[in-house]
UniProtKB/TrEMBL annotation:
Residue ranges of every copy of the Carboxymuconolactone decarboxylase-like domain listed in the record: 31-110
Native organism: Methanosarcina barkeri MS
Pfam families: CMD (PF02627)
Catalytic EC class: lyase
Keywords of this entry: Lyase
Lineage: superkingdom: Archaea
InterPro entries attached to this UniProt entry: AhpD-like, CMD-like
Protein's name according to its UniProt entry: 4-carboxymuconolactone decarboxylase
Upper lineage: Archaea, Methanobacteriati, Methanobacteriota, Stenosarchaea group, Methanomicrobia
UniProt GO molecular function: 4-carboxymuconolactone decarboxylase activity; peroxiredoxin activity
Amino acid sequence: MIIMEKAVKEARELKGFMPRSIEYAGQINEDFAEGIAGFYKAIWSEREGGLSMKYKHLIVFAIACSTNNIQSAVKILARLHKFGATRTEINDAMMLAAWTGGIQHFTDFSEAVLKEMDRLGY
């Protein structure tokens, strides 16, 4: 239980919140929760020469937009704001999402994303 608690704590610190997948996995099996927490740590830890947190979030933002995952895209904007992404960087990610996901997805996610950007002061 202590190993799982450590892994969960580290994942929470990296993401800034408790990922629901870890919480749900813990209700199923301690080893499963520890594995998912380790997955979060492996992805979201900053490594020398690796992507910064800002660029990792720009990438997942673009993926969320291109797959029409509007709720996730809007949620990621708060993380982008925290890590200092500029409006121009976010706009570029949105345009890349339109390129890879199609213009219909762009139309679908743009309204919610632009509204949240305004709320965050971009």
